[in-house]
Amino acid sequence: MTAEVMAASDANYDPALSKLITTLKEAETLSNDQEIDFLKALLESKELNALVNVHTKVAKVGRDDRLAPMLSNSAVILYEALEQLSQRCHLNEDCREVFHLLQKPHLQSLLHAHDAIAQKDFYPHLPELPVEMDEDEETIKIVQLVKSNEPLGATIKTEEETGKIIIARIMHGGAADRSGLIHVGDEVIEVNGINVEGKTPGDVLSILQNSEGTITFKLVPSDGKGAQRESKVRVRAHFDYSPDVDPYIPCKEAGLAFQRGDILHIVSQDDAYWWQARRESERTARAGLIPSRALQERRLLHERTQREVNDSESKKGSCASICTTPPASPLMRSSSSSSSCRQPKTKKIMYDLTENDDFDREMIATYEEVAKLYPRPGVFRPVVLIGAPGVGRNELRRRLIARDSEKYRSPVPYTTRPMRTGEVAGREYIFVTREKMEADIEAGKFVEHGEYKGHLYGTSGESVKSIINAGCVCLLSPHYQAIKALRTVQLKPFIVHIKPPEFEILKKTRTEARAKSTFDETNTRGFTDDEFNDMIKSAERIDFLYGHFFDEEILNGDLVTAFEKLVNTVQRIENEPLWAPASWVQ
Ligand SMILES: Nc1ncnc2c1ncn2[C@@H]1O[C@H](COP(=O)(O)OP(=O)(O)OP(=O)(O)O)[C@@H](O)[C@H]1O
Q1: Are 382 and 416 part of one and the same domain?
Q2: Given ligand 1 and candidates 349, 351, 385, 394, which is best to mutate, with the most ligand atoms within 8 Å of its CB?
Q3: Which residue from 39, 105, 289, 303 has the least number of CB within 10 angstroms?
Q4: Domain of residue 187, residue span
Q5: Ligand 1 pocket, residue 393 CB under 6 Å
Q6: Which segments constitute the L27 domain (predicted)?
Q7: What strands, in cross-sheet order, belong to the sheet with 552-555?
Q8: pLDDT digits (tens, 9 = 90+) for 115-167
Q9: 515 Cα nearest atom in ligand 1
Q10: How far is the CA of 429 from the centre of ligand 1 (A)?
């Protein structure tokens, strides 16, 4: 043994490292180049030796069966348990306590850390060693897939600089993805023995369409690994989408149709314009292409600009009959119908902002990131009933309170108007001076407020909070313009849109029930046909302006049915995890 190696063992070198140093010494006698010197210095460094020792100890602990984890998915089990418990919380105290404990962020983080260790998530993922090969020779892979009714789940494109046909996307969960053999960036050289050089993606598609049985691809693998990780993002769609009528989608068959309100699992946002998603309710399905937020926002902006141009053109009277612009979407029509659904003069208007409510639609509604919000035992989310004036929000609210007045309560509103005969302070209203109310509004003490006939009206945040803190369900039926002020992380409201049925049913149900028009200040006559029509138009406008904020819609035709649906809804809010803005769930 050489003097240096003796020194190495003196320094408590790891045996394997000592052996390497010895071998290196022997090699040094054969050649004496700089690289060997460098390697020697590295192997003899204290830092490397310390690292190797740590590694050996960790590896030894890892081999000890006594320390093997029982399971590596405890966090998943926790969420499953929460889901089960949430339906039983109302049954007994123990359930509620466990449910409460399992929701603690510390416990959840602990289980996540446990799972990461159990799954050995700490091991570095080293790139695969390159296989020795002739540098000039390209690796080619031959992939065979059996053609079925299911689409391949991949899109191709022509690479601009080279003209090569390249795999542009692999749809998550699709046939190509499941095969694990085709990756984004792979170059397609042949399909079923046909050279695709110089061909367009359309030509390749027709080769595929005309093939039967097995399809054989000859591919040059891309440099990257192409491994796709699924993102966990869930969004609520705020618009309807159909790939069949989208002229820009790269491949209609690869598109995913959805409707406003659908919860979508966004599995990939790798492409700036086309995300991959599947409907939350179809977890195993192949992912489909949907427009990204950026693309959809651009389109809406474009449509809006187009509409403005058309509006100004038609005002000039120049192209009304020759304009070839496609008919306005429902989105556009509602937006321009503000004058047709303005409230009648006799109706009380607490929120004198009718000229401004287009601002509410300024926010471009595309997708909203959501997450499951679990009910907290004893702390109920406020339920906000929104609807066109006269549609029956207060009737439904009153019925719910009458059903269980211990549980459902509404805050007493504040007003600056003088008290009328028969009224009791604190029962109908809390009467305050204008100065006091303005100061409180300024100080942010009202969750919603408005002005009617020179008097202020509003609901204080404190009164809502005190109902929630008393363990009751707070019911609110404010003017629809209060939605934005109420929809905060502090209140986490559940918003229900009470909608009128079609004209005939609306008229029939109200007439049979001798309903009193809320447009009549004396509250003595029934609704007129004009008022029914206004109610329907107003509901359309509310839907256009605020539809993306609604958690639920209830059609108030038959009152018994509508009330039953409301009862079911409030029970779900109390017991089930429900989708809510992701920023509310931390
Ligand atoms: N489904 C229904 N069938 C029959 N009558 C109904 C129905 N829903 C509500 N009504 C009646 O319609 C009238 C107006 O209802 P309500 O007072 O609840 O309206 P609202 O939405 O609170 O209106 P506003 O905001 O103008 O006060 C009441 O007489 C109510 O009993």
Answers
A1: no
A2: 394
A3: 105
A4: 141-220
A5: yes
A6: 13-66, 67-125
A7: 408-409, 473-476, 383-387, 494-499, 552-555
A8: 888 777 666 555 555 555 554 455 788 887 776 677 778 888 888 888 888 88
A9: 29
A10: 20
